[in-house]
Design a protein that fits this description.
Layout lengths: L7 H15 L5 H9 L23 H17 L4 H9 L3 E10 L2 E10 L5 H21 L6 E2 L5 H4 L2
Helix pairs in contact: 1-4, 2-3
Length: about 160
C-alpha cells in the first residue's frame, strides 16, 4: 500500500472548502444575472417552465427588490458544506426533511439521511421516532410549534 501525504479527513476538508467556495455569497450583480432568465416558479403558466414569466420580466424596481431579497437569503444561509461532503463520503442520501414552526417561519428543522435502499418500513419507523421525540420535547416544554409537513422524498430512500 502506498503511503499518501494526505488523509481522508484532508480530502473531506478540501472538498468542503471548495463546495463552500462554489456556494460563496455572490455579489448583487451576479444574483441578478442568475435570476434574469429564470422562470418565477409560482408564475409558470403551463406544463413547461418556458410558459411562465421570468424574473427579468418584472418591472425594474420589483426585479431589483427581488434580487436584493435573494441575495440576503444567500448571505444568511448556513454553511453546510462540510456536512454535505461528509454525507457524500459516507454514501448517505438525503431522504426526508422534517420542520416545525408556523407557515414558512421554521423554528426547527431536521434532515434525515441514510444509505440508499434502506427498507421503506425502517425509514418510516425512523421518521416516526424523530417526529415523536421532537413532539415530546416541545409538548413537555409547552411550546406550541406544529410540524410543517414537507413534500415526501421517500422514493429516494428505496433507491
Amino acid at each position: 500500500m502506498t503511503h499518501l501525504p494526505y488523509t481522508d479527513a484532508d480530502l473531506r476538508a478540501e472538498a468542503a472548502r471548495q463546495y463552500a467556495e462554489v456556494l460563496r455569497a455572490p455579489d448583487r450583480l451576479e444574483v441578478g444575472d442568475e435570476m434574469r432568465n429564470t422562470p418565477i416558479p409560482s408564475a409558470v403558466g403551463g406544463p413547461n417552465a418556458e410558459d411562465g414569466i421570468t424574473w427579468g420580466h418584472l418591472p425594474y424596481d420589483d426585479f431589483h427588490d427581488a434580487s436584493r431579497e435573494v441575495h440576503e437569503l444567500l448571505d444568511d444561509a448556513p454553511d453546510l458544506s462540510r456536512w454535505a461532503v461528509d454525507l457524500a463520503a459516507s454514501h448517505l442520501t438525503r431522504t426526508t426533511e422534517l420542520t416545525w414552526g408556523h407557515g414558512s417561519n421554521w423554528a426547527l428543522a431536521v434532515q434525515l439521511a441514510h444509505r440508499p435502499r434502506l427498507s421503506p418500513d425502517l425509514h418510516n419507523e425512523l421518521v416516526t421516532a424523530i417526529r415523536g421525540a421532537v413532539r415530546l420535547v416541545l409538548d413537555n416544554r409547552s411550546i406550541d410549534t406544529p410540524e410543517i409537513r414537507q413534500q415526501a422524498a421517500t422514493e429516494e430512500a428505496t433507491r
